[in-house]
């Protein structure tokens, strides 16, 4: 078990690292104030210890925990395992957010070889980095209300963390107080759920999930209850957190919409201290903001109820092939020429240009699917020598286990993404398709992990009432590039990696004017972020933000109405 000291051991943990301007300087917050907060939350104020702490003999003065070889072996064995990391408050899936990138204060292992002693032996020092030194293990709304009151009185910033799946560092922060939502584990199903204050005639099957429930838990629950709840392609992602509030795509998004399209109700604590129910019948403005405005912005969602779909069986097309530069281009050209008609028929899924594809369609019989995909089968088997399968999947979980394990994207290393939504207009002619393919190949050329997500709700369109960028519903692809580094990469090298990824994605930005990017998987330095993430919805979101958070207690990187990169709380960003 990883070291997790209780509050009694951290009464003097007011000294923090030199990572940027300190909010928790000695004397800035009195011991009495910390005592009072801890009492108010019934002793659930605790210290966050870096995940790799047990491996380091030498530590910075503000880091708790102990050097322990046995515990270190456990950390090393699970270092790149999301299932191990998910329940540790001092762990983030993308480990640059455990660090202060601007000062190189960190507590990381070598992700290529976690047993490599050069990463943790002296003179290496384990520092707190970007991990909030203190957190509240949230159990009830009053815990969040107490945190907001404390922040208002002390200016200590608040961050909200659940599982640590975060490409932009919004759930971490040096010198912040974290709200850890992981232990909110309620999970229930109501076949005739009626949102509070709505008409009985609006009843719909709904699954209510606590903020800490992961998609792995939800998929098992849905299978047991003979329903379908599509979601993330990684089991340890939280259902309710940034995934949902930023949009939330799945293999079935084209058919049934994004997660925000199926949201029925949330219960949320706002920075003004109110515990509210938001749905289409009450607090509608807040409900609109939550459905795409981004997590960690308008309040802290304690639970959400999501529309459940019937148990579904559906055709799935899958193939693998040995890629070359020539076959990659051939494949993308063929897919681009067929993407519009596939989307219009309800197909969606994942394209890995370096060697595989998974598409599903819940609206077709096997015979119809075979007819629609005959040309693809002939192309990939004849031209690429691929192994092609068309199978009937009896449930979403079966499909997930058959095709999406292990997860496509890595954890346990510094890893960044960039993305772009590709509108249907870019598929309108042979010329525009050819240009798109050329740009995609060049933009992703040096990405270690590259995926084309065919997960936009083009077929589904919109029931209205969401705040994501409307360009989602006019697009066919969400293209994702990436970059990574290791524990010993220099600060200058990291800056160059960030800059290169932005430049590479400019190749797609240039041919998609007026489009945007996915808030949850975007470039950390996304140009014109507010327009890219929310389009014409942005000004409305700002007004809602100021209504429910007038004192700006919540702020996060490139979030609605954020204070900007020069704010002290963002001093660890590069």
TrEMBL record:
Belongs to the oxygen-dependent FAD-linked oxidoreductase family. The keyword Iron-sulfur does not apply. This is FAD-binding domain-containing protein. PROSITE patterns: FAD_PCMH, PROKAR_LIPOPROTEIN. Keywords: Oxidoreductase, Signal. Pfam families: BBE, FAD_binding_4. Residues 128-311 form the FAD-binding PCMH-type domain. SUPFAM superfamilies: FAD-binding/transporter-associated domain-like. The keyword Oxidoreductase applies. It comes from Rhodofomes roseus. Residues 1-20 form the signal peptide. Gene3D superfamilies: 3.30.465.10.
């Amino acid at each position: 078990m990883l070291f997790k000291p209780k509050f009694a051991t951290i009464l003097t943990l007011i000294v923090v690292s030199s990572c940027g301007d300190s909010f928790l300087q000695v004397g800035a917050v009195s011991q009495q104030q910390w005592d009072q907060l801890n009492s108010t939350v019934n002793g659930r104020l605790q210290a966050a210890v870096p995940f790799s702490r047990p491996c380091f003999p030498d530590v910075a003065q503000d880091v708790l925990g102990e050097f322990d070889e046995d515990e270190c072996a456990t950390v090393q064995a699970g270092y790149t395992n999301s299932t191990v990391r998910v329940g540790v408050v001092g762990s983030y899936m993308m480990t640059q957010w455990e660090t202060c990138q601007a000062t190189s204060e960190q507590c990381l292992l070598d992700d290529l070889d976690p047993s490599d002693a050069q990463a943790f032996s002296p003179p290496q020092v384990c520092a707190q980095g970007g991990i909030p030194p203190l957190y509240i293990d949230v159990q009830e709304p009053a815990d969040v209300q107490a945190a907001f009151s404390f922040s208002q009185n002390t200016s200590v910033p608040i961050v909200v963390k659940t599982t640590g799946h975060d490409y932009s560092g919004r759930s971490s922060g040096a010198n912040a107080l974290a709200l850890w939502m992981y232990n909110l584990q309620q999970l229930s199903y109501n076949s005739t759920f009626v949102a509070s204050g709505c008409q009985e005639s609006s009843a719909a099957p709904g699954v209510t999930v606590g903020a800490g429930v992961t998609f792995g838990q939800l998929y098992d629950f849905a299978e047991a209850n003979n329903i379908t709840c599509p979601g993330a392609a990684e089991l340890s992602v939280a259902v309710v957190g940034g995934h949902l509030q930023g949009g939330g795509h799945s293999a079935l998004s084209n058919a049934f919409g994004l997660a925000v399209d199926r949201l029925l109700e949330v219960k949320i604590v706002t920075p003004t201290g109110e515990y509210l129910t938001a749905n289409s019948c009450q607090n509608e403005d807040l409900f609109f903001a939550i459905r795409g405005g981004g997590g960690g912005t308008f309040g802290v969602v304690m639970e959400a109820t999501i529309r459940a779909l019937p148990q579904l069986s559906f055709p799935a097309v899958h193939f693998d092939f040995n890629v070359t530069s020539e076959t990659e281009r051939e494949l993308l050209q063929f897919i681009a020429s067929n993407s519009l008609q596939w989307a219009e028929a309800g197909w969606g899924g994942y394209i890995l240009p370096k060697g595989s594809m998974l598409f599903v369609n819940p609206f077709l019989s096997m015979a119809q699917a075979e007819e629609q995909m005959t040309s693809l089968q002939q192309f990939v088997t004849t031209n690429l020598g691929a192994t092609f399968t068309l199978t009937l999947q009896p449930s979403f979980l079966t499909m997930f286990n058959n095709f999406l394990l292990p997860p496509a994207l890595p954890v346990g290393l510094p890893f960044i993404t960039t993305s772009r939504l590709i509108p249907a207009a870019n598929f309108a002619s042979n010329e525009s398709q050819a240009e798109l393919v050329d740009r995609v190949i060049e933009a992703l050329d040096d990405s270690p992990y590259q995926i084309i997500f065919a997960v936009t709700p083009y077929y589904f369109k919109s029931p209205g009432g969401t705040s994501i960028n409307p360009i989602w519903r006019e697009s066919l692809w969400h293209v994702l590039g990436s970059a990574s580094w290791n524990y010993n990469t220099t600060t200058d090298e990291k800056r160059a990696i960030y800059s290169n990824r932005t430049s590479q994605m400019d190749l797609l930005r240039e041919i998609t004017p007026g489009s945007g990017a996915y808030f949850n998987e975007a470039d950390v330095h996304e140009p014109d972020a507010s327009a890219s993430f929310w389009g014409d919805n942005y000004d409305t979101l700002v007004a809602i933000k100021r209504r429910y958070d007038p004192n700006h207690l919540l702020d996060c990187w490139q979030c609605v109405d954020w204070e900007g990169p020069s704010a002290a709380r963002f001093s660890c960003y590069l």
